[in-house]
Task: structure prediction
Amino acid sequence: MATDPQSVRNDTALTQAERSAASDRAMLDAAIDLVLEHGTDKTTLAMIGERAGKSRGLATYRFGSKGGLYDALCKSISRDWLACLTERVGDKVGIDAMCTALDAIHDFVTRSPREGRVLQILHAGAASPSSEFRQTSIDIHGRQQSDVAEWVRRGQAEGSIRNDVDADAVAGQYIAYITGMTHLWLVSPDTFNFKSANADMKRQLRASLAVQGAQ
Amino acid sequence: MATDPQSVRNDTALTQAERSAASDRAMLDAAIDLVLEHGTDKTTLAMIGERAGKSRGLATYRFGSKGGLYDALCKSISRDWLACLTERVGDKVGIDAMCTALDAIHDFVTRSPREGRVLQILHAGAASPSSEFRQTSIDIHGRQQSDVAEWVRRGQAEGSIRNDVDADAVAGQYIAYITGMTHLWLVSPDTFNFKSANADMKRQLRASLAVQGAQ
DNA sequence: AGTCACTTGCTTGTTGACAGCAAGTTTTGG
DNA sequence: CCAAAACTTGCTGTCAACAAGCAAGTGACT
Result:
């Protein structure tokens, strides 16, 4: 009973959990900076640890390996993106949900351009056979695709989407388009007009999915 | 005319140019193997030189750097792909050209799966800020996109494509879709049905671009 | 033909940097 | 005070990049 931890801990002292959470965040933030500057391969674990105000070895110690760190970073940003998406889409379904998702992508990339770019770079890296978050990337795409397919099915149920389209096929095309569009924007942001591409896509979605005369 | 080099050269002796061309090819072939096995980053220049039957230092000497080698490899495979594409498409225009190009992709990936996969991996790598063939990748996409836009315009000129669509916007969407589709197929070939995705896309192209009542 | 000056293809030695590990040191908390 | 957790430092093997060199090829001139 005698000891009271809080009485002897000053402002800077944190609990163990707080310490590690804070240093994890600092290192992931540093990793975002460095990946944007130098890419994933020319960023070193020592650079990440030191920019986070820690030692050169901490990143390795905490995340196990370079791939492990990027996997954690991918999951962290994906969480934010998913939060942004679900907040925007809410419980919309059908064409509305698909169009709102396009807006959500644009919003996320505008509000968090650094995180958005890094997420793209990481997903692109999943193409490599040696990638450690290949499976993570596959899972994310799979989940997004089944979400979209569900939007389409509910749109058909409520009568806003034609019944003669295959929900899974539409979802596949939609996800492929988004994947390609974000990749092209990432590689050359100047020659790619995100906003007008989105407007075109929305028009396209309505034209090909909406039931005749509806909307 | 006095000297006749060919008379004194035996079977195994090659001219300098032939020698370097042969070793370049051998190293690019070795690089394809190794990139498929280990990815770009875990493949070493020494491995490439040695699998090509040469020394560990030749790849660096000839291509200057790891990035330089991958840039050369990207250009080499792109040449084959472009040849395959132009052979298939010929002087088709409009929706025909766009659908044939989808078939050409499927053909190329079926006939040269190794080259196709490596090309995808390299293009994905262009996402990194440190990539040395970033510009190469941008140029290739730009050229493809303007080719597609030209197909659309000629299709409009010959009356097979509606006049109220914007050729550049259509080309952008088409290229974005192809980019995403090939990426998704690369990352998880098992969960992605290339053939049926192509069929869906063709239907989609005809539905959204064809003049009412034509075809 | 012969040999000499020069170029080109290729190999080997070396250096600096990095990932990953292991053995330590400091901080926390009971 | 001591165990556990957070963190640092020392070290090793590997790699990209470079540089110095060797050997085969090439052309010019006799």
Notes: Residues 16-17, 19-20, 23, 49, 54-58, 61-62 of chain B lie near DNA strand C (CB under 10 Å from a C1').
